[in-house]
Write a structure and sequence with these properties.
globular; 5-stranded antiparallel β-sheet; single chain; about 50% helix
Length: about 250
Amino acid sequence: MTDFGTHLRSWRGTRHMSQLQLATEAEVSSRHISFLESGRAGPSRQMILHLADILEVPPAKRNEMLEAAGFAPQHHRSELNADHMQTVTKAMRMMLDKHSPYPAMVMDRLWRIVDLNDTAAMLFGAAGLAKGDSLLDWSLNTKVAAEVIENWAEVGHHTLTRLRSESRAQGGIAELDRAANHLAKDPAIMGYSPEPSLSPVISTIYIAGPMRLPMISTYATFGGAEDLAIADLKIELMFPATPEAEQILNSL
């Protein structure tokens, strides 16, 4: 098991904070931070959570810090179909259904499809994806991705950047790092060079049979998520990027 000091030092490095900066934010001495990292001093549960707040440590990683110091975890992971989770699952289902006829889906931190609305099921079904499948695994087959996404070089480059950003924010996720390294070797992505653009966001141009659908996306998460099952989720809401795409989706 990794000791608490190693966790603390790692997160301080991830957030690019010196011992003095962290000590100042935490209102303790830099000597105390040094002792915590070296194991010469043991933290209280309250101090661990205080430092985790300052370092913006995500819930799952807070549990690791607590357990490394001998404390019980703060956050638990429930099944989404548990009775006490019904308020959350009902809210997610409402968001998916109300977003129709535009595609929407729920993903976990490893980009597995947890749920999706009928439009998303149709769009991604044409690409061989369904509930329970991993968008991460699918995107690694870059030949297939390039057949389904017209502007794959641009989208793949954006995906690569996003994978690295998500992993870094979580203190490192091996699956995301491996996927990013794989995408970085794709010739189309390697050869892509972003050019100045007046477009406010990158659109993904999906090709589904005779349909050409330029789409933009926004993501929603649950604020104040205490359960790990909820903290890991993000809801992708897709919107048509052109009047033609809007007309196609409204006619489905």
